[in-house]
């Protein structure tokens, strides 16, 4: 059966732990697995801007013995010039896997129905599951574990990062808190699914409109841009002085309410002075550069798992 990674809970808790363990192994021995030897092509398609995702997937695919073929989705015009199903039936037979950054989650689900090879979500409007694998790897390296730790995400509670933290960190047995304005709550279905996972894994999920309560005593504090790709026309309302997100900015003061040894994560790109103060992201608690590098190791492990299985 072809396995895909379209959202965080496409891996079971056991499989997520296996991928994270494999990421640690591959970080120590970068060329120890070669499932793409040939080289076999992996198509990496971008309908939205990218930096970290393009570089880290190219590096991961190369190190696994393969050829990363970066495709400009805007040139291909997937879904307008030709249907997603037809694109999938062209890419599938010529690719060992397809990695796609696109808009609606329905688009990547349709791609996965027709490729016949693993499809990996490299960010959609709803989820960014590869980033969460990198974040969990970073937490594991800095804290020695994930289960039982509290992660506080403050900012836009309705975006892809919020949804993926809810699902992915619940799978990892964490206590997940989302601090967000009442009008920017996560999708109810995602929240319900995260609660179900947390109950099974010994963690918990909480959403609050009080940023101090979200961060209180947390082991990991994270945020994300208030203006996700595709929402550029809302920039004034979301980043201006009257933005509902202003109380959720990660300032030194907010960070002081977390555990004394808390770490700070941000998927990047970051806007200093908006969602995070420079003193925090450039300060001693920030591990964002480890986090960015860990995209490489986590995605290498994920591709290896999807192509080679658990062994
Ligand atoms: N929420 C952000 C994540 C960027 C990696 C966006 O979708 O633009």
Which small molecules are bound?
Answer: norvaline
Share of residues in strands: 5-15%
Query: What is the terminal separation in angstroms?
Result: 16 Å
Characterize the largest beta sheet: strand count, sense, and whether it forms a barrel: 5 strands, parallel
- Mean pLDDT over the residues: 98
Q: Give the count of helical stretches.
A: 13
> Any idea what the shape is?
globular
Series of secondary-structure elements, N-terminal to C-terminal: HEHEHHEHEHEHEHEHEHHEHH
Oligomer: single chain
Strand order of the largest sheet: 7-6-5-8-9
Low-pLDDT regions: none
**Percent helix range:** 40-55%
Q: How many DSSP-defined strands?
A: 9
Structural class: alpha/beta
The whole-angstrom Rg is 19 Å
Domain Aspartate/ornithine carbamoyltransferase carbamoyl-P binding: 3-141
Binding site for L-ornithine: 160, 224, 228-229
Binding site for carbamoyl phosphate: 77, 101, 128-131, 267-268, 295
Main location: cytoplasm
Structure, described:
There is one protein chain. A 5-stranded parallel sheet has the order 7-6-5-8-9. Strands 2-1-3-4 form a 4-stranded parallel sheet, sandwiched between helices. It is about 45% helix and about 15% strand. The chain is α/β, with parallel strands linked by helices and about 300 residues long. It has helices spanning about 15-30, 50-65, 75, 85-95, 105-115, 130-145, 160-170, 190-200, 210-215, 235-240, 250-255, 280, 290-310, and strands spanning about 40-45, 65-70, 95-100, 120, 150-155, 175-180, 205-210, 220-225, 265. It binds norvaline (NVA).
């Amino acid at each position: 059966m072809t396995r895909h990674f379209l959202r965080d809970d496409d891996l079971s808790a056991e499989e997520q732990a296996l991928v994270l363990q494999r990421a640690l192994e591959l970080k120590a021995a970068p060329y120890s697995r070669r499932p793409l030897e040939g080289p076999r092509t992996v198509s990496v398609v971008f309908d939205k801007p990218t930096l970290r995702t393009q570089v880290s997937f190219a590096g991961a695919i190369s190190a696994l013995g393969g050829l990363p073929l970066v495709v400009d989705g805007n040139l291909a015009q997937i879904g307008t010039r030709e249907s997603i199903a037809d694109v999938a039936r062209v890419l599938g037979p010529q690719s060992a896997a397809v990695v796609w950054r696109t808009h609606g989650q329905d688009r990547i689900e349709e791609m996965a129905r027709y490729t016949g090879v693993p499809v990996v979500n490299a960010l959609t409007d709803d989820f960014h599951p590869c980033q969460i694998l990198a974040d969990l790897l970073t937490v594991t390296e800095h804290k020695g574990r994930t289960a039982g730790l509290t992660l506080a995400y403050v900012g836009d509670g309705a975006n892809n990062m919020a949804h993926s933290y809810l699902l992915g960190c619940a799978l990892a047995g964490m206590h997940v808190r989302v601090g967000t304005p009442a009008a920017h709550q996560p999708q109810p279905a995602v929240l319900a699914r995260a609660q179900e996972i947390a109950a099974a894994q010994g963690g918990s999920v909480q959403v609050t409109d009080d940023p101090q309560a979200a961060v209180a005593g947390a082991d990991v504090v994270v945020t994300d841009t208030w203006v996700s790709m595709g929402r550029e026309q809302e920039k004034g309302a979301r980043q201006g002085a009257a933005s509902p997100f202003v109380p959720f900015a990660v300032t030194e003061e907010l960070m002081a309410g977390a555990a004394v040894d808390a770490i700070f994560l941000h998927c990047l790109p970051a806007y200093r002075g908006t969602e995070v103060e420079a003193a925090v992201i450039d300060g001693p608690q920030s591990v964002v550069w480890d986090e960015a590098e860990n995209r490489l190791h986590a995605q290498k492990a994920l591709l290896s798992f999807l192509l080679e299985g658990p062994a």
